[in-house]
Amino acid sequence: MRILWRLYGYSARLLKTKLFRTAASNTSFPEVWILLIQYFERVPGFFCVVRRNSFFTMPEILENKADLELYSPHPEVRGMTTLDRAAFKKTIVVPVLKVKKVVINKLLKSLKHTTLQRPGLKRVIDDPKDEDNRLVLLDPHKISAEYSLGESEQEVLKQFNTDPHVSKYNLELTYDNFKTEEILRAVLPEGQDVTSGFSRIGHIAHLNLRDHQLPYKHLIGQVIIDKNPGITCTVNKINIIDNTYRNFQMEVLAGEANMITKTRENYITYEFDFSKVYWNSRLSTEHGRIIELLKPGDVLFDVFAGVGPFAIPAAKRKCSVFANDINPESYKWLVHNCKLNKVDKKIKKFNMDGRDFLLGPVKEELTKELSLLTKERKNTLHIVMNLPALAIEFLDVFKHFLDGKPCSTDLLPTVHCYSFSKQDNPAKDVQERAEAFLGTSLEGCCSTHLVRNVAPNKEMMCISFQIPAEVLFKKQCTHEESPAEPASKRLRPNEDFPE
Ligand SMILES: C[S@@+](CC[C@H](N)C(=O)[O-])C[C@H]1O[C@@H](n2cnc3c(N)ncnc32)[C@H](O)[C@@H]1O
């Protein structure tokens, strides 16, 4: 089921399914599946094709394997824990072509797919025997075993009156000429995963090292700095995020220990102390998705705002924003980023618990906004709650939240509430838990969106819905209904909440 769910998520994205709609997004589940099943049925050999394809990719794999052997640094670096760049030197034999200096530039253009491409390596070097010539280094995998060039290259050489004879050259590769993966593969124990992926936050590379990589952590950190221009500091997460402020303890692996960084997301610049606030570059698409739903004049309440990745772009879209975070450091950088992005006047900032924020400033503003909204003046109201471990538990706040007459359905505020789920059907799970805290059914009037897969068997979801009027508003007494009437009679669903 989980695999099916993932496939659904990916196929929904592929098919560009609009995931925000007023009907439950679960309803699109069958649609997508029908499409997939129809596709597979029409192509009975689908699974064979997949297999055949992977068979066809073998030559590529072999080439990579040959690359790995040829471009592996000196074997003595295996097990190195303190980086000694000089130890990586290795001499390999590569094919070279003698070319007259006068034609070299034109020839290089035609031979660009055959020349040797390595980091920090010049493709053309001086010929020690003849100063009128230069040597063009060729890729050993792009020429035949007999050391001759292909027909098309030979044709080009003829045009430039150049001898097609290819000779051998002893090339010394240094640390600078190896790629990160080649270096780490040579250092870490054979057969172990060397994945060198990281998130980049300004000048900081944030790694998530596995246990077997820890003895090499400082070396890995330094290699990433060396190989990625602009990165001057590498950090490794040392605990899971479970504290209130959702920041994590980190260890500096290499480079300067400056945690104040500047990064850009969706064309907006943010500055913050990465060690003290929450920031996740993987949420940029999700931030963008929510912002796309807003139009000028809308109001956004961001209950768990962090340093402002929903609030600031919303203000840039000319929305009125109320942003809150309990972490004084997040609040400080939120204020800073509002000024930095010149949206200070559009955002009211708060540093309080989310529940107090909802019961105080949000309640007050919603009451005001809903009294102003009419069928003609239809700006929408949005409440974003991105604290996936806990946000759902805050939903009970909305029960009988507002006094006054219920507004028409289309003016009701929309909540975007995030949650993790480890269930087989995360959409159903999140919907059921939201319903339990709201005390009402959301069937047919919510949408769920798969934000990202956080860990094996753990998804981050966003459930969006307009708060049902019968939940949001306090009960109204009508003439026919006396307060003494039994609750069962008064609580008939929707009776008091006309469209
Ligand atoms: C997962 S982060 C999301 C930050 C930001 N909205 C984003 O998308 O990157 C959750 C934020 O909620 C804040 N937070 C945690 N508990 C809170 C609470 N009870 N009230 C208000 N903010 C809280 C944390 O400090 C953190 O900045």
Description:
The radius of gyration is 30 Å and the shape is elongated. It folds into four domains: 62 residues; 103 residues, Alpha-Beta Plaits; 75 residues, Met-10+ protein-like domains (GMP Synthetase, Chain A, domain 3, 2-Layer Sandwich), CATH 3.30.300.110; 187 residues, Rossmann fold. The strands form four sheets. A seven-stranded mixed sheet has the order 13-12-11-14-15-17-16, with helices on both faces. The protein has a four-stranded antiparallel sheet with strand order 2-3-1-4, with helices on one face. It has a four-stranded mixed sheet with strand order 5-6-7-8. The C terminus is likely disordered. With 499 residues, it is of the alpha/beta class. The chain is built from 15 helices and 17 strands. S-adenosylmethionine (SAM) binds next to loops.
Mean pLDDT, nearest integer? 83
Compute the number of strand runs: 17
Task: Tell me the strand order in the biggest sheet.
Answer: 13-12-11-14-15-17-16
Small molecules bound in the structure, each named once: S-adenosylmethionine
Biggest pleated sheet = 7 strands, mixed
* CATH architecture grouping of the largest domain: 3-Layer(aba) Sandwich
Sheet-strand content, in percent, reads: 15-25%
The portion of residues assigned to helices is: 25-40%
Give me the CATH fold name of the largest domain: Rossmann fold
The N- and C-terminal alpha carbons lie at a distance of: 38 Å
